[in-house]
Amino acid sequence: MASKLTGTVALVTGASSGIGADTARQLADQGATVALVARRKDRLQTLTAEIIEAAGTALAVEADISDRDQAEAAVRQTVERFGRLDILVNNAGLMLLGPVVGADPQEWERMIAVNVQGLLHTTHAALPHLLKAAEEGPRRVADIINVSSIAGRKAWANYGVYNLTKFGVNGFTESLRQELADRHVRVGVLEPGAVDTELNSHNNDTIHAEILDPFNEQHERLVPADIADMVTRPRHTAIAELWVMPTDQA
Ligand code: NDP
Predict the structure, then answer these.
(1) Which residues, 6 or more positions from 195, have their beta carbon under 8 angstroms from its beta carbon?
(2) 217 — pLDDT class (breaks 50, 70, 90)
(3) Torsional class of 14: left (φ above 0), alpha (ψ -120 to 50), beta (otherwise)
(4) Ligand 1 centre and the CA of 199: distance in Å?
(5) Pocket test for ligand 1, best of 13, 19, 25, 43 (most atoms within 8 A of CB)
(6) Which residue ranges make up each domain of the chain?
(7) Which residue has the CA at smallest separation from atom 44 of ligand 1?
(8) Which residues are known catalytic residues?
(9) Tell me, which fold does domain 9-244 have in CATH?
């Protein structure tokens, strides 16, 4: 029996670890051909081999999406190889916490470059293909899932510029959702609470000791699981916003 996403092609950014890697596995399990995009090609190749071993189809695409040329090339390479694009998961992200006072502005620039500009680059490049996919099938619907965060809904001290990027993603997603609704490109935002991934690992020891470790010791974190569900819904159903939390996270 054909799986729900048979015949579709998905591109997942940040597929070399965490939520992106698991999303790519799930989309492949559902029958989608998956392009895996990130900078660490060795990780992408390992996951590609795993998906192919499980009878799926995948392609490793090395790209730094904060560079517009590389982001556009990643989309182009995917469409040239597989002939179409039905699903874009804008998942790549970076979280560097700390006070605004005395911050290194280069850390802000890195977060904005990936979380905001990278997402815009891939979205802009993918849109013509997604619009075509929505018109021509096989599902007659296409999807953009933007992975934001609870930090796109709530702000806290020390999360300043990460909050800025994720609030921005939420606003952009809703605007684009309205723009594309009648063309059957579903645009939705996923806002996870804490997920056990490599995201925290880029922070310094002080941030770990004062913010991240105490939190993680108290909470059972989520495992990545929800994105495939957003894109396997019937054509007439769109999830505009999914805020998914560990049960005990306030
Ligand atoms: P990970 O650090 O495990 O994954 C981040 C991914 O982004 C990696 O695959 C990384 O790949 C990729 N990436 C980073 N910079 C770039 C770049 N310039 N170009 C291409 N890819 C890039 O963290 P998560 O899986 O947790 O994060 C995924 C998303 O989920 C992020 O947007 C994050 O903000 C969001 N999120 C995470 C939560 C959590 O608690 N973990 C909670 C809420 C939201 P590489 O280094 O190989 O390029």
Answers:
(1) 18, 19, 221, 222, 223, 224
(2) confident
(3) left
(4) 6
(5) 19
(6) 9-244
(7) 149
(8) 162
(9) Rossmann fold (3.40.50)
In sequence order, which ranges of the chain are alpha helices (DSSP H)?
Answer: 18-29, 41-53, 68-82, 105-111, 119-136, 160-180, 205-207, 213-218, 227-231
pLDDT of 22 reads 93
H/E stretch holding 60: strand 58-62
Q: In the prediction, which pLDDT does 239 show? A: 93
Q: Which residues line ligand 1 (CB under 6 A)?
A: 13-14, 16-20, 38-40, 43, 64-66, 91-95, 114, 118, 147, 149, 192, 194-195, 197-199
Q: Which residue among 39, 106, 145, 212 is best mutated to probe the pocket of ligand 1, counting the most ligand atoms within 8 A of its Cβ?
A: 39
On average, the pLDDT of the chain sits at 94
- Quote the CA–CA distance of 101 and 134 in Å, as a whole number: 47
